[in-house]
Write a structure and sequence with these properties.
It is built from nine helices and seven strands; from the N terminus they run H-E-H-E-H-E-E-H-E-H-H-H-E-H-H-E. It is an alpha/beta fold. It has one domain: 3-Layer(aba) Sandwich (Rossmann fold). Strands 3-2-1-4-5-7-6 form a seven-stranded mixed sheet, with helices on both faces.
Amino acid sequence: MQPESRRFEEDLLTNPPRDFTPDLRRLKSWPSMKDSPWRQPYLARLTFGEVHNLVDEYIFGQRLRILDVGCGRGWLSLELAREGHDVIGIDYSKEMIQNAKRTMDTDPYKDERGKLEFQISDFSQWNHPSESFDLVIFSRSLHHIPQPSKAVRKAYDLLKKDEQIICIEYAYDRLDKKTAAWIYSVRRSLQQSGWYKSRKKLPENMDQSVREIMKEYNAPSRKEHYNRFEEMRKPLNTLFREVHFSWEPYIYWDLIKDMRVPSEDVEMATARSIMAMETALIETDSINPVLFCFVGLKQAIKS
């Protein structure tokens, strides 16, 4: 997996504080982390916390052996271990795994959790016995991995018979003009209120702004060769029996990341409103969502 350069830059932080603790149960304000939802507890809960809630919704059973692929700074692995599961989190980034281990080692709940281990590794090179896990999770990591069909097949081989995969993934190629137009309307409103930190001011011409937003979102994704939606969905459908599929809000992460509201109460209310708006627009097919959740059970491969 290669470092991401897209707009949704949540885990690959630039020079985070040395004592940064990515932990949903030990949230605090990190004023220096201006471009991350971790900067305020309520923003972290609204973003990372919502991913954890989504994963939790589809975990069935106790004391599961779980593999968290592309675990980043380990916040999800940590929460799952605290729920009593035995978890291995892997990521190619030495810096992020070191951060995950520091957070793990200072966990005040460590005496109550299941086994937790973090390893530095590229998933394609990672070796582990077949049929070792009850659950494999890709949480916004599969879109980075070259040849996603091979990655999904590897996850399939690592799972025990009839066990489960959860894949929550960014599908950059789904963003279209009507979605970019909604992004423009939100950013424009925030800018007019003086609540948006932008790299440059959006043009007043909507068509021009929409083109610029689409380029802003899509160009880095193409440059880094992120996997497209169908490149991920096809192998998932081939190897797993679909239990659940949904589109989830995600663009709001990027919008609130660049939001700057003087009042914390108003910022929290505004962030929740933007998330609720995106959710409603997805449900009414008014915009194209860019984050999907696939839950599947391992099935026999047809010869």
